[in-house]
Amino acid sequence: MALGINELKALFEAHGRRANRALGQNFFIDHALLEQAVETAAFAQMPILEIGPGLGALTEPLLNTGNAVTAVEKDAFLAERLPELLPTERLTVVNGDILKQDIPALVGAEFSAAGNLPYYITTPIVTMLLKLLPDTMLLMTQKEAAARFFARPGDRVYGPVAILTALYYDAKELCELDPAQYWPQPDVRSSVTLLKRKRGAALPAPAGLLRFSDNALAQRRKTLINALGKTEQAHAALEAVGLSPAVRAETLDPETFLALYTAMQG
Ligand code: SAM
Question: I want to staple 136 with a disulfide (CB 3.0 to 4.6 A). Which of 66, 112, 185, 200 is the partner?
């Protein structure tokens, strides 16, 4: 199907509708780029969760991998059109808010994720995904949101997303995107990030580490011991890891966060 800009416009017009900017609706029209990105992602054989499929620009290449795709779309009009445009039993369309879904119930525990993410909830979506650890993630986001995956200690956007990404994933930016590759054109620049889960490393379940790093970084100017609550357990953990209580959390690299979190559990 691969709808071009004229077909997209015609479909919206025929139904007396417009792209809904409040829902971050910027549809991608460079289909060759998406095919290439999906090929590079090399999705393993397992269900794929697609976030915000819109009218299927990314859904179609995802289906071409041979995997089952469960696509969660908030806009009922788009959710209704999608199975008409891509009629296959391997596609399940759920009309709803991605942040309100029981994802394991939809796709199981072992799944991959993909999406041209609605910009207004990118960080909550990424955080939700990092708690579930999909095998592969192919994510199109604003460039500022992509920077959160790659941030290092001291960077303004260094936080839980960077910490979990560094520990659990091999991440790389596949390419930058141009506003002219969308309809309607967004005011911002975006990029495509590919994240492949690291296998073999013995790591804790991510939700606790995410909460821990979030709390520790909530007030960036606080010393670590203040951020951790000045407890005996916190003092012992800092000593075990060889950290001064006066250090600031934002200066710790992901591996040190992991060591401290592990010491706090002990
Ligand atoms: N994947 C399509 C593409 O690349 O052309 C559309 C991408 S568009 C940037 C984001 C999509 O996410 C829109 O279809 C929008 O309706 C949908 N969306 C917005 N908020 C959502 C939410 N909370 N849950 C699920 N989908 C949402």
Answer: 112
